[in-house]
Amino acid sequence: MRTDDLIDRLGRDVTVARPLPTPGMRTAVWMVWAVSYLIVVAVMMFAVMSSAGVTPTPLYLLQQSAALVTGIMAARAALASVIPGANDRVWVLPAIGAATWAAALLWAGVLDLRASGTLGVTSQSDWPCVSSMTVGGLVVGSPLVWMLRRGAPMTPHLTAFLAALASLSVANIEACLTRPHAFALTVLLWHGGTVAAIVTLCALMGHWWLRWPDLTTR
Amino acid sequence: MDESPTPDEHLSRLMARAQQGDSNAYVTLLRAIAPRVRQLVRSRRGFLGENDVEDVVQEVLLSVHTVRATYDPARPLMPWLSAIVRHRLADAARRHVRQGAHEIGVDDLDVTSQTPVANSREETFGDPDALAQAIQALPPGQRQAVELLKLRELSLKEASSLTGMSIGALKIATHRAIASLRRALRGTDEG
């Protein structure tokens, strides 16, 4: 087909295409969903348990804040990555958030070592958190994937990586909020391992669910 | 005094109107950006032949069409367009490498024997009427695929644009059609 014929055909096919809101606005919409999920799960868990069982120390709050910031920044970066011409270095802010999150957990591990004389690596397995983070990540991440699929899949692997990081950061808060952990290193290894494994898997599979739409003019 | 818009502002306005469904503005926009896209492709892939350049240009135009909602009319159009061109070029290069890994280049297809009789069956089918009848007997989808891809020699993308069938569906239809034709013509030939 000649290019001029293709242009005529596309011109005939054109329909209203409302511009997408800015990545910041779309992130806010997604956060409403993510925070609603957190609140619902937390209320349900607190209703089942007699008390929260979690002591909100400043370091604990820093960890959860860093996870939340990582989630917000990663979601914003993912949504920006599907806009052609957006900043290529979208991953920098979520990387800073994730580094802060990991540093806060490491520091808490050092404090555990000083207080108890052990890092508690083998004291507690955390499979319930692995499963709740996986399910939570799926629930929180599904609308984000739907939002991302409305954009241009310029960098599907990076976008999928960021979307998974955003979803699991929020799911991690839910896991930490509803299940007490005796040692910070348990959280770092089990939660961090879950995040690393799922994020890597999603990044590898990014081109499966973020691909250019079928390029036919119908 | 009313200042006339810069070329990029003009394109942005056309795209904003296209996003509202204005067909004329959209065609004007695509006709205006096609030479720019062609120039970008040539400057970044100087080794491509004219047909390959045109393939990439068409791919970019189709991409622009499918993701036009991602354009923010408050921003200049060219950085948005350039990003699409850059990524579609990278995709085309990856596709080329992938295809190259599964293909064996053959400069010249050798005949099986120097004797003309030995090659006549492979090179031509002796009864064009039987072939035409066999094509007519195919199911509509398969017949259309054969006519577009084998007789009119359109590319998969072009045939897909014309029929609305996906590229995968066209490949399957062609494969089945060829198998059916082979069976039908073998029967004709033997009978």
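qc> Residues 23-48 of chain A form the longest helix (26 residues).
qc> done
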